[in-house]
């Protein structure tokens, strides 16, 4: 029992660490009911629309020139590798390209804050 440490007022940095309510996590505040404010509702709706509208817009922006980009991909593959893609293969390639676009957005969203902190904040 040499490694056992007893917590008392002599070796404690703050008195609140000895308070039973602090140690056990007093749950009194959870019994109170609160009202949802109109500011919270407006903020929630604005955030939801602010996230979904640009995502839908960007998907539309990517899909608008789809036929032209599929044709360009097919011509490039034909010139470089002498292979002609079928319509189904072009659709599969287009699906992969759009998915990569969305994955790039996810990576940017996750890493953007850390990159901004490292480079300039």
From TrEMBL:
Protein's membrane topology = Multi-pass membrane protein
Localisation: Membrane
> Pfam families this protein is in?
Sugar_tr (PF00083)
The primary site where this protein sits is membrane
- The Major facilitator superfamily (MFS) profile domain, residue ranges: 44-121
Q: Which GO terms describe its molecular function?
A: hexose transmembrane transporter activity
- PANTHER family registered for this protein in UniProt: FI08437P-RELATED, SOLUTE CARRIER FAMILY 2
Q: What is the recorded name of this protein? A: Major facilitator superfamily (MFS) profile domain-containing protein
Taxonomic source organism = Macrosiphum euphorbiae
């Amino acid at each position: 029992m040499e490694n056992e440490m007893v917590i008392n007022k002599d070796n404690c940095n703050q008195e609140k660490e000895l308070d039973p309510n602090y140690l056990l996590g007093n749950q009194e505040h959870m019994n109170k009911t609160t009202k949802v404010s109109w500011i919270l509702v407006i903020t929630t709706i604005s955030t939801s629309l602010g996230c979904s509208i640009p995502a839908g817009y960007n998907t539309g922006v990517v899909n608008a020139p789809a036929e032209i980009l599929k044709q360009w991909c097919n011509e490039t593959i034909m010139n470089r590798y002498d292979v002609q893609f079928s319509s189904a293969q072009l659709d599969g390639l287009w699906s992969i390209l759009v998915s990569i676009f969305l994955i790039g957005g996810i990576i940017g969203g996750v890493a953007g804050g850390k990159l901004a902190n490292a480079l300039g904040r």
